[in-house]
Amino acid sequence: MDAIGLGRLHDRATDSLNLKIEKPRYRETREEVMKCVAHALLVAAAIFAGPLTAVAEDAKTAIPQFQVDALWPKPLPNNWILGQVAGITVDRFDRIWIVQRPNSLTPRERAAEQNPPPSRCCAAAPPVLVFDQSGNLLRAWGGPGPGYQWPETEHGIFIDDNDFVWFAGSGKPDGQILKFTMDGKFVMQIGKSGTGNDSNSTERLGSPADIAVDTTAKEVFAADGYANRRIVVFDSETGAYKRHWGAYGKKPSDEKTPPYDPAKPPSEQFGNPVHCVRFDRDGLVYVCDRTNDRVQIFRKDGTFVSEHFYEKNTLATGSVYELVFSPDKEQKFIYMNDGANGEVRIVDHGTKEVLGRFGRVGRQAGQFTALHNITVDHQGNIYTAEVNTGQRIQRFRRLDPQN
Fold first, then answer.
1. Taking the domains of the chain in order of start, what are their residue ranges?
2. Cβ atoms within 10 A of the Cβ of 217, count?
3. Does the N-terminal peptide bond of residue 107 adopt cis geometry, omega within 30 degrees of 0?
4. Does the pLDDT of residue 19 top 60, yes or no?
5. Are residues 148 and 76 in contact, defined by beta-carbon separation less than 8 angstroms?
6. How crowded is residue 248: how many other Cβ atoms within 10 Å of its Cβ?
7. For 52-147+211-398, which CATH class?
8. Quick one: CA dihedral 374, 189, 295, 173, positive or negative?
9. Rounded to whole angstroms, how far apart are CA atoms 244 and 231?
10. How many whole angstroms separate alpha carbon 49 and alpha carbon 72?
11. Are 81 and 123 a contacting pair, CB within 8 Å?
12. What DSSP assignment string belongs to 330-368?
């Protein structure tokens, strides 16, 4: 950046920090002053934040560059606070949708809901929240209601090409996926809450993690899941069962398998959880076998195509949590999030080779604590969601022009 550019940035930061704090005409609390100072410091940090340079595996390869937007989203209204955010997606209007877990919040975090409240903050936000590109909250809804079984543990959100919103749930009794309109009107439930997980069941799922919908074929695919070990397909209009398959396109088994060992041959079964399902431009189905550190690719009829390993020596919770394709016509890149290693990988869609990566485990802007989900808008900006003690969403603006 030239000296003029740096000077302008310095002037902007100085203006933001140059707070004229006068003796209050009436009573002004120290807390209010500190809030103003803290906001100014955050603005200055955002101004001076540099791009998150993706570390390239090959110096000759041009890869996308991103910069964290430390001021996105804007503060929530109604004294609301987020719990674990277990799903994030973008609709065709480039609005950002999340599903979060109100029940993951502690009593201290929900103190304002108690009677009498031990402190002013806070109250749990509804499970479903929608933001615009500027980070403004547009709508919020979700939770138990008549005619359907809301998941015990919210997990995964998908919006299909007909603007229906789909949810899964990873709680132990969760054996269902749900379909709603964008304004929260219930449409359909597939499966049911209960017990008795079975990877070959045609009636219920086993703690499903994710959903993808083929509106042309009228089929909904579920990554099933935390208890089952399969991809299962239903009619997206009627809910009728259609087919399912396990790793390598074979029949899944619920027999206990040994823990993942990178030194041994790959498992013939999916591990738990089967954590994501996505379609690429060619209609291939990408499946995140999280704890086995791999992506398996299939045709939509379940025919196995190929498998690819990433950070193969990762044990812990696995290295392949979720993935999304860049929005350019060719879908040149796959963005893959890794919760165990706290990073986003940039993968060549054609070769499946890692081109670069950004992020690390941490709590500052641009770092990740329990990174769980990822999505991308039509401008190429990336959005991430964090569970456990992360409890936040982040936006990473794409800096380089898309081809």
1. 1-48, 52-147+211-398
2. 14
3. no
4. no
5. no
6. 16
7. mainly beta
8. positive
9. 5
10. 14
11. yes
12. T--EEEEEETTTTEEEEEETTT--EEEEE--BSSSTT-B
As beta bridge partners, residue 309 has: 294
| Of the candidates 377, 395, 378, 398, the residue with the CA atom closest to the CA atom of residue 386 | 395
Provide the residue type at 159 as one letter: I
Within a 13 Å sphere around the CA of 196, how many CA atoms are in the beta-carbon half? 9
82: which 2 tokens?
Answer: 């987020």
Strands 123-124, 80-81: pairing is parallel
326 close to 352: Cβ distance less than 8 angstroms: no
Asked whether the predicted pLDDT for residue 23 surpasses 50, the reply is no
Distance CA 361, CA 180 (A): 35
Name, in order, each residue with C-beta under 8 angstroms of 381's C-beta and a sequence gap of 6 or more. Answer: 66, 395, 396, 397, 398
Lay out the sheet containing 230-235: strands in order across.
210-214, 219-224, 230-235, 241-245
The answer to whether the CB of 67 falls within 8 A of the CB of 399 is: yes
Residue 326 near residue 271, CB atoms below 8 Å? no
Angle made by CA atoms 226, 144, 241, in degrees to the nearest 5: 50
Indicate the residue type of 64: P
pLDDT in tens, 68-124: 999 999 999 999 999 999 999 999 999 999 999 999 999 999 999 999 999 999 999
Q: What is the β-pairing status of strands 84-90 and 96-101?
A: antiparallel
Q: Cis link prior to 390 (omega < 30° from 0)?
A: no
